[in-house]
Structures are given as structure tokens and as C-alpha cells.
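User: Show me a protein chain along with its predicted structure.
Assistant: Here is one chain, sequence first, then C-alpha cells.
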Amino acid sequence: MTRIVHMETYKPDYTYKTEEIIEAAQRLWLKNVDEMTKRKALKIFKGSKIDQRSAVVDLETVFSDLSFEEKNNIYKGKMVEYGKRLLKQTFEKSNIDPSEVDYIITTSCTGFMIPSVDAYLVNEFGLRKDVVRLPVTEMGCAGGTSALIYADEFLKANPDKTALVLTMEIPSITFQLNDLDAANLVSTAIFSDGFACAVLKGGEGKGAHIIDTDMYNFSHGEYLMGFELINSGLKIVLDKDVPSAIEGNFENIFLPFLERNGLKIEDIDNYMFHPGGKKIIQMVEDYIGDYDKDISESKWVLENCGNMSSATILHIFDKVTRERVIESGQRGYMLAFGPGFMAQSILLEWRS
């Protein structure tokens, strides 16, 4: 058995209200575009249902005309900087000593660095020389669930071990100044930088135990989501069919998963859905609401933090465990979507 014993989130240095982002976008990005495109962009921003988002750089840098090299150099520097901050805070608040770490998984899809950020963290905190490293780079928004699943597989085989999962995303530096396609407009309106770290242990004990996991692959969904690598960096791929594809597959994603564990929708106490955007979260809320279940924490994270890609689901878990009174025996269900197109599910049970 694997259990999540601690969750830590870390907020970037810059936080902006949506009104501030709109003002900066008009001043730095949309000032020379035609009125129809400007109105379209502002409608997307205002209709995103997101109140504020954070970034590791200021808005002048976000909306500047940077080369891929310049963007990626920011990414590498900030990954190391924030990785150190996040892990320092995790060790201080979890009472886990660096010498206890056996496995470190880092997930990020918003830049490239070799060696990966975990190499710097191993040396910064003096982790053991036999620590196992696994950087995960291409799972997108599902990277957080992916990393938890990889940690689960490791710890089931090594029940006396400890694993760290670090989700670290900087989508602010993937912005494309000269791209006025709908995908870039939506991406600029909803994505946000974010960081989180989960501590997991093998064996029985207190924590949120991972009972079962699952991956559901959509048929021929490669076109729905991802990045294209162009001369100015990572260009978002975000097809308009994403919400309808999720809606069309939604019941097949999680109902068979619950059934194989002998459960129904009503048996889950705490639902945690990666929100994606307002259409997806509204569809899920409408469906779950018919069973007197709510996803208020998922909505809160989207509204107050934005879509932080792989870090989002860990932020939602943190919000649930901090805000709700969770008793031993309660169950949780986590779901996130990623490129491929695919969905990943995790069934949890809290035990004391």
C-alpha cells in the first residue's frame, strides 16, 4: 500500500488579478491588432471565470518578444530556484529528512533542461547517492496524477521507502507574442505558473492511501492537446473539441473504474477533478451535482490559481485536506486529463 502523508504548495512571486492581466495584454500585446481580434481576446479573458493567476516573472516579461533560447533560459533558472524553495519548505513542514528520500519524481511540460531539475535538488539538499530520479516531461496536465501513480508502483514494490513528487510548471514563458489563434488566446487566459510537492510512503499507516489507479486513452485524440516546438518556443495545441471529447467519454472514464472497486458515485466522499477550463469544470459539476456531490475545491483552485497544468491536481488535493474534515475511511477520487488524449484516475482512502 502507498499513502500520501504530506502535501506542500508554493506560490510564485508575482500574482495578478485578471483585470491587471487584461490591462497589460492591451498595452503590451493587443495594441496593434485589429478591433475584432482584440474584442475576441478580451471576451476570452473576461469569460475565463478566473479571478487571479501567478507567474515567476512580471507581466512585461510575459508579454515580451523573447526567443526560444531566452524563454528556456528563464525556465531553467526558475525551475532550479523554485525547486529549491519548494523542497526546503517541504522538508521543514513535513518533518521528512533529506536522507529519508529514496525516490524523487519531477514533472513539468513547459520547458526543457538537461540535466533535469532533480539533479540540482539532489546536490542542493544532499540526497543520498542511491536516490532514484525520474523526470516526467510529456504528460501535460496529467503529469501530477502520472507522478503519483509512478510513485505508487515504486512504493508497492518497496514498502519501506519514501518518495517525493514535485510538480513544477511555468506556462507563462510559453506565450507566443505573434500568435493570435484561438488556442494561444485561451492558453494566455487560463494557464498559470504553479508548484507543489507530495510526500509518499509505502506500507500501512496514517495518510491518504492509494487504493487503485487507471489510465483511459481516447481513440485518435492526439490532435486535441499538446505543444508544437517552433522557433519562438512552445506553441500550445488546444483544440476546440477538448470539452466535447471529455464529455463524450466521461462516464466511461470513471464509472467502470469505480465499479471494479465495488463502488458507486455516491460512495466517494471527496471528488478532485483537474478543472482544465470553465466548460470542463461546469460539465463535471453538473454531472456530479445530480448525486449531491460537489467539486468546490476544484472550482476554487481554477478561479484563484488558474490552470497550473500538472501542479493543479496536487493543489486541489491540498485544498481538500486543509478545508474539509476528513475522517478515517473516507474515500477520494482524483482525475486529470493530458495529451494523447488520455485521462488518469486515482482512488484514495484516508486512514488514521
